[in-house]
Each structure stands twice: as C-alpha cells, then as structure tokens.
Write a structure and sequence with these properties.
The complex is a heterodimer of chains A (397) and B (377).
Chain A: H1 2-9, H2 13-51, E1 73-78, E2 81-86, H3 93-125, H4 131-145, H5 149-160, E3 171-173, E4 177-180, E5 183-186, E6 188-191, H6 197-215, H7 219-238, E7 243-246, E8 249-251, E9 254-256, E10 259-261, H8 263-290, H9 293-301, H10 306-336, H11 348-359, H12 362-396
Antiparallel strand pairs in A: 1-2, 3-4, 4-5, 5-10, 6-7, 8-9
Helix pairs in contact in A: 3-8, 3-10, 3-11, 4-8, 5-8, 6-7, 8-10, 9-10, 10-12, 11-12
Chain B: H1 2-13, H2 17-44, H3 48-52, H4 54-59, H5 67-88, H6 93-113, H7 116-138, H8 143-161, H9 171-198, H10 202-217, H11 220-234, H12 242-268, H13 271-279, H14 284-314, H15 326-335, H16 343-376
Helix pairs in contact in B: 5-7, 5-8, 6-7, 8-9, 9-10, 9-12, 9-14, 9-15, 10-12, 11-12, 12-14, 13-14, 14-16, 15-16
The chains are: A alpha+beta (397), B mainly alpha (377).
Chain lengths: 397, 377
C-alpha cells in the first residue's frame, strides 16, 4: 500500500485523481465480469434444470434414501442418548451423505496415522548406512511414486485382498488377526456386562488425565497426572473393567466378533498408506538432509552413536521442518479416499454419486461435497498450523 | 578384485552390528522375492494374454484399419521426445547405446508378441527418436524453434488421430494424448492465475486465490465428474464429446497447481530487478512478459515436467466419465471370463508400462533440474 502512495506522489494531482478512478474502474470491471460469468452459469444451469422439471433446492436431503450401503453409520437417538447405528435404506439422503463422510474419515484418519509411521521409517531407511536397505527403500519409493494411485488401489483389491482365502479357511495371524476375502478382522474391544457406572467414570477420568498430560507443560505435573491415570485404570480393573478384549472367531460364513474391516476398506487403506508413505518418506528424507551436516559430525565427535544422534538430535528438529509438507500430504490423502469408488467403497464421493443418480440432483450434491472437502482441508491445515505454531512458536519469538 | 568386493561388502553391508543384522534379514528375503518373481515371470506366467490383447491395451476400440494414425502419433511422439532430449542431454556414446539396446529389446518383444510388422514400425519410430535427438543437439537448434516444433507435433497428432471420432479413443493412446493436451492447456491458464494471484488489483487477486485454493482442496475425480455433468446443461443443443469434457475438467483442475508452481518461480525472481524495471518506467505488461516470466518459468520447468507425471497418473480417473484409458482397458480384458485367471499378468504389464513412462518423466525432470542449475549459476 505504501509503495502505491509513494508512486502517486510523482504524478501531478490532477492526473492522480484520474488514475485512482481508473483503478477503481478496473476493479469494478473485473468484479462485474466474474459475477456476470457466475450468474450466467447459474442461470443457464437453472434453465436447463427447469427444462427437465427440476428446481434447485436442498429439500431432497430430507427424503428417504431407498438404497443401501455396504458399510457406514448414521447418528441417531436411543432413549435420549446419541448413538451410531448402521445405515439403512429408510434413512434420509442427508444421513446417507453422513455415512459416506464417516467412511471417508475412517480411512483418512487411519491412513494419516499409519503413513506417518511407515513413511518416517522408510525415509530414515533411505539414509541408512546399509547399502541394501538404502537402495531398497529408494526403489520402493520410486516405484510407488511413478505409478498411478488408482492402479495401486485396484491391484490391492482385485489381485490381493480378493485372493485371500475364503472365510471358512481364513488365515489366522498372531492369534488375533483374521484375513479372509470377506474382510480383515482385528481383535476389538467389547463392553462387558458386569461394568458399573463407577468403573466407567474411572475409565473416563483416566482418559481425561492422559489427554491433560499431552496438553500440559511441565514434567512434574505430567508425571503426577500419568500416575493418577494409571491408578484410576487399576482401580477400574479391580472393581470390574468395563471393556474386554473381543477376539474374532472364524466361522463357516465369515467371522464373528472383533473389529471387522471390509475387503474394500482393507484394499483402499493398504493402497493409500503404502502410497502416502512413499511421499512422507521423501518429505522426511528431504528434511533430514536439509539439516546442517555439522550436527552429525558434532554429535559423532561427542561420542554419540548414529541411532542416538538420529533419535535425540535430528528427529526432533525434523518434526518442525516437515509439518507444513505433511499437512499438504494429509490433505491429498484425504482427497485420495474418493478413489474408493473404483472398488465400490462407499466413501463420500461414491455416496454422492448414488444419491444424485437416484434424485437427479447433481448440482446441489456437488455443492455439499465440495464444501465438505474444503472444510476438511481447512481443518487439517488449521490443526497442523496450530501444531506448527506450538512447536516453532518459542523459537521464532 | 575379490578383496575389493569383500571390502565393499564389509563397508556397505556389515559396517556395524546393526547393519549386519539388517543385511542378514534383508538379503534372504530379497533373494527369495527375486527368485519367486523371476520364476513366475519366466516360467509360470502366461504372457500370451498380453500379446493377444495388445491392440486393445494400446488403442482400445480404435478401428483396426485406421491404426496407421496411431502409428503416426507414436513416431511423432518419439521424434518430439528425441528433440526434447537433444536440448538437455548430450547424446554420449553410453546414453545412445543404452537407448538403442532398449529400442531393439522393445521392438523384439513387440515382434514376438504381436507381429513382425508392428515390431518394425516400433523400431522405425525409435530410430526416428534417436535421429531427432542427435539432430537437435548437433545443430544446436534455437529453443524457440524446438518449442514451436513440439507444439506443431501435438497439433499434428491431434489432427491425425481425431477423424475416427473421440469415442473410439482408448488404451494407452488415450492416456498419452490426454496427458499431452492437458499439460499444454494448463500452461497459459496457470500462468495467468499465478500473475492474478500476485496482482496489485485486489479483486483479481482475491478471485485468483479463491479459484486456486478451491481447486486444490477438492479431489480431481470430483472436478472431472462435475464438468462432465455440467457441460451438457450449459450447451444443451450441441453434444460435446466426453473426452473433451474430461480434458476441460483436467485442465481446470491442474491449472491451479501450475499456478502455484509458477508463483513459486515468480517469487524466485530478485526484487531488485522488478524495482529497477519500474524505475525505468516500464509498464507492468513489459515487466512481466520480458523480465519476470522468462526467469520464473525457467526456474519451474522441472516442476512442470514433474507435473506431467501427475497428469499422466491422474488420467486413470477418466473411468468415472466412461472413457477407456490404459488401466481400464486392462480391467476390461480381465472382465472377459476367458482371461479371468490372468490377473497378475495383466497387472504386472500395466505396472511395468506405467513405471517405464513415469520413470522416464521423473528422469527428464531431474536432468532438466541439473541442467538448468548448471546454466543459471
């Protein structure tokens, strides 16, 4: 702004007013042109819809959906308590979109956690002193980044997950994990009948204490809170722990119990985690390499081992550098869940497609879906920016 | 020799106890994986399914008597790729030899899998590419001439391949032509958006920023699908082919990404130059076109080449609007009950081709980066 004023000083006053007026005119012309374009688009679309006898309105969201989804839950009320129950065809279109969003988030959040872990490992592997490990990681990352995500997704689905043994002969790994072509079953948590309100309260308290530990600063306070949380857990266990381990059991028609993951979600999750890990690995590697080499040398001359240096000196700094790039990766990953449509995973985009096919309301739906993805992107970058400020805040000031 | 090898093994695989442990775990696993995969590729796999459906994989349902059009595009692409290489890479003996060996291998593979005729056409295209490479380097052609030549090549491909109709485009041909067309379409639009985002005119800046940010936070598949749906509503009397609608969707989406790359290039131009130009009373148009943009674009050329890979990989999403690209063609072959047991053969072939093309694009982008970095210092 100041440069503009400085520029105007060199112009005679009579012309200055004219110039400013001209600039305003340009601004107005641009706004009017873009607004005109948008309005023309809107009118043309409305007219086209009117010709088909459809009006632009969001009323259809309240109508009964009349289709079923292979997975997905909707919020509902049971005796005054909000619960999540499986989506059924008698639910509304809005609830269907919610179920789709739920499925997208389910995959996105699990993938964010897993790809950060694996990606960091592979990124460190790319800098290993072991030639074989280093080049293996490099080859893996290159192969994944140079092939489309979609072929990776369909490969994992059609060539891997659907080739798992049938449910009756499901492979059983590590005692609790069942893999069959009707999905993957993990040990889950089940509510036990003998739990009282007191033990539930203690469990909630333990959770709150652990959360406080994460948020609070100060080692002493954290230790006290952690000890209190452990004490609460022990007491809860003694008076009847409300949650029990629920191991899946293979039956002739599938598996019973445990935490079930559908084959579509299994394939999509594996594909996205593997794909994003490659990108995260590159981000982590770039960050490690961007740190001054002198730090490695200094810590080596202090007699620290390479793994010690990595853990205590390099990685804490890397964490600060990679956050913005990781945020971008997380956003891409969330958008990538929309490719689940290729293997029939009912994510938000897939459900939107079904709803708009049933109702003929593409435009209303696309507005909702676009706004949802925009909101998700903003939430992710807000979270990471907040973390970034927390991590880097003290250093910049 | 053996001592050297032993020393290499010691230093690279068994330098420390942890490294040794890793090596002892990784080497047997790797050996087993290589053996299992090699055995499958050489002994167990039935590659006839790929040879038998090669035409579908490469061109989809493109009419068989019009295939010379597809061959024309292959030859033109080879020549364009060769000329592009000639600009950035000296045709050294080792590079030429490796390309020639590769070309002979591919031609031999095509000749044994399909027919001798196709193999010879492949070899001729490869030879044309090498000739263009040497030619572009030998005569040190002006960059502008090469660029307009590339553009002319793209237009020629489009004109020659179009006549049988956009509906019959398919397979790898569709993926490649879509990628090239979208890469070129996004460039001007992306540059304008980047300039708009940097503009001093507030309304222009706000609108450009809003466009870029919106496009960057929604999935590509949604944009492509939506453009595909909305075009018939906007132009009810004319029927726009699905392929062109798809291209429009891709271009609108990737322009936002190009804009961000170009913006980073714009920021790399030293401020002093802009101030100097302003103090010479240069208009902002001349300033941008003659001073800022040439330097900014030069910086972002490697990123833009890398973006071509994103577009090529994204081209698989055209299944959502019912087009049959390379991946979809492979899936259609597998849908035939006769080939249902050949899943791995088809997928391995698709992966290999995607990896080869993607690897070439990545390699080109890296070479360009090194080349430009050398020149600019």
């Amino acid at each position: 702004m100041s440069t503009e004023i400085a520029e105007y000083h060199s112009i005679p006053p009579a012309r200055r007013g004219l110039l400013i007026a001209f600039k305003w005119l340009v601004q107005a012309a641009i706004v009017i042109a873009v607004a005109g374009l948008v309005i023309w688009l809107g009118l043309a679309v409305r007219e086209a819809l009117a010709r088909k006898g459809i009006q632009f309105s969001f009323g259809y969201l309240g109508n009964v959906a009349n289709f079923s989804l292979s997975e997905g839950v909707v919020p509902s009320f049971a005796g005054g308590w909000p619960i999540l129950e499986p989506f059924s065809p008698s639910n509304t279109n809005l609830q269907a979109l919610f179920a789709g969003l739920w499925n997208s988030l389910k995959v996105a959040l699990s993938a964010i956690v897993l790809c950060t872990m694996f990606g960091t490992l592979v990124g460190i592997g790319r800098l290993s002193t072991n030639w074989l490990v280093r080049n293996l990681c490099f080859g893996l990352v290159e192969a994944i980044r140079n092939t489309p995500l979609l072929i990776q997704i369909v490969f994992w689905y059609f060539a891997v997950v659907l080739r798992f043994p049938p449910a009756s002969a499901a492979s059983n790994w590590f005692g609790g994990l069942l893999a069959s072509r009707s999905g993957v079953f993990l040990p889950g948590l089940a509510v036990s009948e003998r739990a009282g309100a007191a033990s539930w309260g203690l469990l909630a308290a333990a959770f709150a204490l652990v959360a406080a530990c994460v948020i609070l600063r100060g080692l002493r306070l954290r230790l006290i809170f952690l000890a209190a949380a452990i004490a609460a857990l022990i007491v809860a266990a003694v008076i009847g722990f409300p949650l029990g381990l629920d191991l899946p059991v293979a039956t002739r028609f599938g598996a019973r119990g445990g935490f079930a993951i559908s084959p579509e979600m299994t394939a999509l999750l594996i594909a996205i985690v593997v794909n994003s890990s490659a990108y995260v690995a590159e981000i982590v590697r770039g960050a490690i390499e961007s740190l001054p080499k002198g730090q490695w040398e200094a810590s080596a001359s202090l007699g620290l081992s390479r793994s010690h240096t990595l853990r205590d000196i390099i990685l804490p700094q890397v964490f600060r550098i990679v956050l913005p790039s990781l945020a971008n990766r997380y956003i891409s990953l969330t958008k990538d869940t929309s490719l689940g449509i290729a293997i029939g995973f009912p994510d938000l985009f897939n459900v939107y497609g079904t709803v708009s096919n049933q109702t003929g309301r593409n435009l209303e739906g696309v507005v909702i879906v676009m706004l949802t993805y925009l909101a998700l992107s903003w939430i992710i970058s807000a979270c990471v920016n907040g973390l970034n400020a927390r991590v880097n805040g003290r250093r910049t000031r | 020799m053996t001592t050297l090898a032993l020393r290499w093994v010691h230093r690279n695989l068994f330098a420390k106890p942890f490294d040794a442990a890793l090596s002892l775990v990784v080497i047997p696993l790797l050996a087993w994986a290589v053996y299992a995969f090699g055995y499958w590729v050489l002994v167990q796999a039935h590659w006839q399914v790929v040879g038998g459906s090669f035409k579908v994989l490469m061109t989809g349902i493109y009419p068989a008597d019009q295939l010379w059009r597809a061959w024309f595009s292959v030859a033109t692409l080879c020549a364009m790729f060769g000329a592009g290489l000639g600009l950035s890479l000296r045709p050294g003996r080792s590079a030429l030899t490796s390309v020639a060996v590769l070309a002979i291998l591919i031609s031999a593979a095509v000749a044994t899998a399909i027919d001798v005729h196709s193999g010879m056409l492949t070899a001729a295209s490869a030879a044309l590419g090498i000739a263009a490479w040497i030619g572009a380097h030998r005569w040190a052609v002006d960059q502008r001439i090469v660029l307009s030549g590339l553009l002319a090549g793209v237009v020629a491909i489009f004109v020659v391949v179009s006549p049988p109709g956009f509906e019959v485009w398919g397979g790898l041909l569709l993926s490649v032509v879509l990628t090239i067309a979208v890469s070129i379409l996004t460039l001007p639009f992306g540059i304008l958006l980047a300039l708009g985002r940097q503009s001093r005119i507030t309304s222009l800046r706000v609108i450009s920023t809003a466009y870029i940010e919106t496009m960057r936070s929604v999935p590509l598949i949604l944009v492509v699908y939506w453009i595909w749906i909305i075009v018939p509503l906007l132009a009810p009397d004319t029927s726009v082919p699905g392929l062109l609608r798809g291209m429009a969707g891709f271009a609108l989406f990737f322009a936002a990404y190009v804009a961000e790359y170009v913006r980073s290039g714009l920021q790399a131009v030293p401020k002093g130059q802009i101030e100097a130009a302003k103090s010479l009373a240069m208009s902002s148009w001349t300033l941008n076109v003659d001073i800022v943009l040439p330097q900014a674009l030069r910086v972002v050329v490697p990123s833009l080449v890398g973006q071509i890979l994103d577009i090529f990989n994204g081209a698989t999403l055209v299944f959502i609007i019912g087009l049959t690209d390379f991946l979809r063609a492979g899936q259609m072959i597998l849908a035939d009950p006769q080939n249902s047991g050949r899943t791995y053969e088809i997928y391995v072939f698709l992966f290999a081709v995607y990896l080869a093309i993607g690897g070439a694009i990545t390699y080109a982008s890296r070479r360009l980066e090194a080349h430009l970095a050398r020149g600019s210092r």
